[in-house]
Design a protein that fits this description.
With about 425 residues, the chain is α+β, with helices and mostly antiparallel strands. The protein is built from 14 helices and 14 strands. It has a six-stranded mixed beta barrel. The protein has a two-stranded antiparallel ribbon with strand order 11-14.
Length: about 425
């Protein structure tokens, strides 16, 4: 029999048990919907976390001293940062490059002393798109130049120090030669990052003022932060940059710079994959049950078809075509079921504020603030992978029932009442 005729027959066979077919299609659609939902939340929120972490510390790729990662001291700096920035910008994936200095300092006012971490940036080059802390400015103003005499404090740190706007703050740190040095600044701004641990320990300084205190050269910094559009390409970019900058500079990806965050994301991704595999097994078992029961109910019919000239291969193809129709209709139903909720969740999201403590509640993971609104946003290749996985699972579920249909014995099965 021609393939087109078998296809028509397979389509009609599906709807001979309309309720069972609808239940199977519903299970395919709902299973696909759950897989897309899990994956889209994972893709969007983890990508946002990675981008935010890159804007907080060292970019998606960081160029720094080869020994700094193991022994982070201000003596392990990189020089000729302008050249490194130029080399980085030659890569087609790189969008922006900035230089930074960061470390630990003791902050003192007339009323209190607290330790914290500082980050020094160039206000002429950076903005909130490369340094996320600038978005959280609640009081005061940002630096006017890289030699500004101000200091910006985390909200809780400012409260602990008793540092109001315009108040003097002395910061003490160890310079590149291991000597204890100090600088004086006035509070010019207060930021709220959304991460409680950062708000209690963060101060921001202008980069050239810190260079003067530390004894750094004008083209010397602790790191060169490289930003790209798609964080998934960080590894490729890092490998290319490493080949360009040479052995005296290490090109590290965001997950190497922030292993705690990378570990958290890997754990969550692993859990999501396990759930998706479990859903796939349950859906595949349902499809297998539908097709197998359908074949067993039609053994006499298959025997008659064999007796009038159908080959075992034709019966095998017939059942496989039924699987094909189930897969195609199921995917169409999945798309119809998913598109509405996905569009809503990608724009409005789910507000988790009430679940974590109400208005003003904050979330953080490995020192990175996490949005309390969960939004969906799946990578196109992941959507394709889900569709392919559903299709393959449906076709595989039909293999044994199709084989069983092609193995009927006409003489025995025709006797079945």
């Amino acid at each position: 029999m021609k393939g087109s005729s078998l296809g028509v027959m397979a389509w009609r066979n599906l709807w001979r048990r309309r309720r069972r077919t609808l239940i199977t299609i519903s299970s395919i659609a709902f299973g696909s919907f759950l897989a897309v939902l899990f994956t889209s939340f994972q893709d969007r929120n983890f990508a946002d976390m990675i981008d935010l972490a890159a804007r907080m510390i060292g970019g998606h790729v960081t160029l720094q001293h080869p020994e700094y990662q193991d022994k982070p001291t201000l003596s392990r700096s990189v020089v000729d940062t302008d050249r490194l920035a130029s080399l980085s910008m030659e890569d087609q994936e790189v969008e922006r490059v900035v230089t930074r200095i960061m470390g630990f300092a003791m902050l003192s006012t007339a009323s209190a002393n607290y330790g914290g971490g500082f980050i020094a940036y160039d206000p002429d080059v950076e903005d909130e798109n490369t340094l996320s802390f600038l978005e959280g400015l609640e009081e005061g103003e940002l630096f006017e130049s890289s030699r500004d005499r101000g200091i910006i404090l985390g909200k809780k740190l400012a409260k602990n120090l008793g540092a109001e706007m315009g108040k003097k703050v002395v910061y003490t740190l160890t310079d590149k030669n291991g000597e204890i040095v100090s600088g004086l600044a006035r509070v010019s701004g207060i930021v709220r990052t959304g991460a409680p641990s950062l708000d209690a320990a963060l101060c921001i300084l202008p980069i050239d003022s810190i260079r003067d205190v530390l004894g750094y050269a004008p083209d010397e910094a602790l790191q060169v932060a490289v930003f790209i559009d798609d964080q998934r390409k960080s590894g490729e970019v890092a490998r290319r940059l490493q080949a360009r900058v040479g052995p005296d500079v290490a090109a590290l990806t965001w997950d190497q710079i922030q292993p705690d965050l990378a570990g958290f994301i890997a754990m969550k991704v692993g859990g999501a994959i396990f759930m998706e595999v479990l859903i796939a097994i349950i859906v595949a078992a349902g499809i297998f049950n539908t097709l197998f029961v359908s074949v067993m109910e039609r053994l006499r019919e298959f025997g008659i078809m064999m007796a009038i000239g159908f080959s075992p291969g034709s019966l095998f193809r017939l059942v496989m075509l039924e699987s094909l129709w189930l897969a195609l209709v199921g995917l169409v139903a999945a798309a119809a079921l998913t598109v509405g909720p996905y569009l809503y969740l990608s724009t409005k999201g789910i507000d988790m504020t009430a679940m974590i403590g109400g208005e003003g509640a904050e979330m953080e993971v490995a020192g990175v603030a996490v949005s309390t609104v969960m939004r969906a946003g799946i990578f196109p290749e992941h959507a394709i992978m889900i569709a392919v996985a559903v299709f393959v699972a449906t076709m595989l579920s039909g293999l044994y029932p199709a084989w069983r249909a092609g193995r009927v014995a006409p003489v025995e099965t025709i006797k079945i009442v």
